Amino acid sequence: MKQQTPVMRICISCKKTFNRINLVKITKDHKHGIMFQKGMGRSAYICKSKKCYSDSKIKKKLQKALKTFLEPEFIDIFEKEIASYNDYPNKGI
Ligand SMILES: [Zn+2]
């Protein structure tokens, strides 16, 4: 039996390692700008913990990770997006 190795990524906020399926991927797409869970380009991962995505420094961390400027409104969209993926808050890894 072949065992599948989970792809591990680090949350940019808490710096903990998670299985990629438990993280939300934020990508600065070449054509479409910032995208969630899709797109091609520089990307960052964040876990679905409220503590992480509502962190006051998250915008700075994202800007640094994605090497881009984020509008102040972005954080509202961002929080809503992550929360919408957060259907199973206690599932974890
Ligand atoms: Zn985190």
Concise structural overview:
The protein has three helices and five strands, in the order βββββααα.
Count of alpha/pi helices: 3
Q: What is the makeup of the main sheet?
A: 3 strands, antiparallel
Q: If strands are numbered along the chain, what order do they take across the biggest sheet?
A: 4-3-5
What is the percent of helical residues? 25-40%
The termini sit apart by: 22 Å
SSE pattern, N- to C-terminal: EEEEEHHH
Oligomer: single chain
Q: pLDDT under 50 segments (min length 5)?
A: none
Supply the helix-strand structural class: alpha+beta
Account of the protein in words:
The protein is of the alpha+beta class. It has helices at residues 50-53, 58-66, 74-84; strands at 8-10, 17-19, 23-29, 33-36, 41-47. The strands form two sheets. It has a three-stranded antiparallel β-sheet with strand order 4-3-5, with helices on one face. Strands 1-2 form a two-stranded antiparallel ribbon. The two termini are 22 Å apart. Bound molecules: zinc ion. The site of zinc ion has 8 residues, from strand 5.
